[in-house]
Fold Integral membrane protein (TIGR01906 family).
Amino acid sequence: MRKFIFFVLVFISPFWILGISSRLVFNNWFIDFEYSRKDFPKDRFGLDNEYRRKLAKLGLKAVLSKEGLEEFKKAKLPDGRKAFRQKEINHMKDVNKFLSILFPLSYFLFILWLLGLIFLKDLRKSMLLYSGIFSILFLISIGLLSFTDYNKAFEIFHNFFFGKTSWRFSNTDTLLRIYPMKFWFNGTVAIGVIFIIISSLILVSGNFIKKND
């Protein structure tokens, strides 16, 4: 039974690492970082970058809280028109529901993994080593699939979780104007970097214990 629990805890490690890495990127700092880059795409229709940044942060708030979603619905463009169409609002509702499951589940899996690390003392070294190795291999596999054709990977992900049409927008829609594809590509890279840092720290910790046994 202990071995089974051990393998389950190793198996869940990349999933909680991915969830927590994503949550760290789903923050205002990343929006500020992207919008401060000189090569960040300009809006083809002339919307000011500071206004885009403001709307982008509002969009982030919308997918993280119900209050933010209500503010998002009322958002206006500088000329007074509604910033987002109903289809865009509906998609953000879908993302809000998805993240309201993903992030708490990630925290739960992390707590399970941590409890296993605490109570399975004789397996602690192996658990750290195997969790780190498995997570890094997981990231390499996902990375190869994603970056071979990022646009296709983006499409497959959205089709799977949100259906084939609800997330597709016109180039004139505000969501695409405040979150261009480069934003998502860089966000994926940022998640990957944080993921590899966490996985490496786990692996190094296991190796440290092994050397000091």
